[in-house]
Amino acid sequence: MKVYTDIIDFKNVKNPVVTTGTFDGVHLGHQKIISRLKEAAREENGETVLLTFYPHPRMVLFPDDNDLKLINTQQEKIGLLEQYGIDHLIIYPFTKEFSRLTSVEFVRNILVNHIKTKRLVIGYNHHFGRNREGSFEHLKEYGPLYGFEVEEIPAKDIDSIEVSSTKIRNALLSGDVKTAASYLGHDFSLTGRVVDGKKIGREIGYPTANIFVDDKFKIVPADGVYAVKVRHDNRLYGGMLNIGNNPTVNGKHKTIEVNIFDFNRDIYEEDATIYFIERLRDEVKFDGLEALKAQLAIDKINSLKILADN
Asked: Can you give the pTM of this predicted structure?
């Protein structure tokens, strides 16, 4: 997959078949669009192009919205789109000036003049342009005028529940990582740097890696204990992870700490990726370290059972 951060560099692409959107999560609904995009590219003897935006439009339009959390970091989204077979990814800078483009200006300036779109494939209820004025009906008018075809993917449900990035975020914020995964079509993950901690886990036989997530907009699941998989140095391990304030030892700050099974290496300042499999329980304040240690033994048994089935 070729990635463009300047649309000027996008050139000489044969019969571009294009879709556009934020694609946060690259969930099952997005995958339906990508699948159709790939089919359409084969029909046109062309190449797939996904036009997305950075920063996320809400960051620019509503800069004081401190509640904004995204399922993917930019690098995570790039990795997923490559995994799902996109040929060309254009990451267009989203600015206030860009947001003021009318729908016809967006079509003419971006889709036609720069990308030279052969066919446009969009998701159900897609809107674009200033104040989201543009719609599928507008595109059906613009297509013949500017020489491209347009098709809309109808709304797709899973178990009669519409898939959306918002529903996935809500599932994660409640700790329901299994439901989030069912919507995503893959396990929710986060990547962070291993940083120094208090090393209390080591004292009771359950050493943990403290994960620092650099992107403040990356969503973190609800506090609690989870069965997880951990990728480090291209190897995958089982583990159990706690998100919370460590009340048993009077912790003051939220941390993400993972006990990696069958692992005994110093990986400070290295990156690790966590895949959330299932939530085990709430974070609890125990009467002391011995009580915590006893519960961790139970958590490990439960995690190993869950991981064996995943």
From this structure: 0.90
